[in-house]
Backbone:
């Protein structure tokens, strides 16, 4: 009798622990693909390339300016060709055909079928599509606000680096 009394709560505890795992079925490939379609994951990925290319050009120009380098037309053409090759390599490595299966797997590891169904229902709604449409503007505004917040801090950090370099008698760019 005592064994039976102990077994009942133990069985109930095991069932309670196991039941969420039993109910939490992973979403199907089709469900995840629909969610990614509704949230425009592919177009977001495709849209990042012009921004990355512009950032790459800015970094090169900044480094050249900081180092006082003024490449000849031929050297600049070689550098531009190198940047185009690097971008092409990155685009190939990050093509939708390569990242979609990875994204799908991540979604399936992160969300269960019920989560994905609920997100699909939301993103199919006008409010969900409005959110998707306005997310780039939201991100842009967030980045601008963050830059305003971080700007003075970055300037202070640069001044600190220059002051430290001056105390050591070395240029701030690290050249001997």
Residues:
């Amino acid at each position: 009798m005592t064994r039976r009394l102990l077994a009942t709560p133990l069985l109930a505890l095991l069932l309670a622990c196991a039941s969420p795992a039993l109910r939490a079925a992973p979403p199907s490939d089709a469900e995840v693909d629909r969610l990614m379609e509704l949230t425009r994951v592919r177009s977001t990925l495709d849209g990042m390339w012009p921004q990355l290319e512009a950032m790459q050009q800015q970094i090169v120009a900044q480094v050249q300016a900081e180092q006082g380098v003024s490449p000849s037309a031929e050297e600049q053409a070689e550098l531009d060709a190198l940047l185009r090759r690097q971008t092409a390599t990155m685009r190939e490595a990050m093509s939708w055909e390569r990242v979609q299966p990875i994204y799908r797997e991540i979604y399936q590891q992160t969300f269960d079928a019920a989560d994905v169904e609920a997100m699909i229902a939301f993103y199919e709604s006008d409010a969900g599509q409005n959110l998707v449409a306005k997310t780039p503007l939201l991100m842009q505004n967030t980045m601008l606000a963050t830059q305003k917040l971080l700007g003075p801090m970055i300037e202070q950090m640069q001044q600190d680096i220059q002051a430290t370099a001056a105390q050591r008698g070395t240029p701030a760019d690290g050249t001997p």
Notes: The two ends are 85 Å apart (CA to CA). The chain has two domains: 24-124, 128-167. The mean pLDDT is 85. Residues 12 and 18 are 10 Å apart (CA to CA).
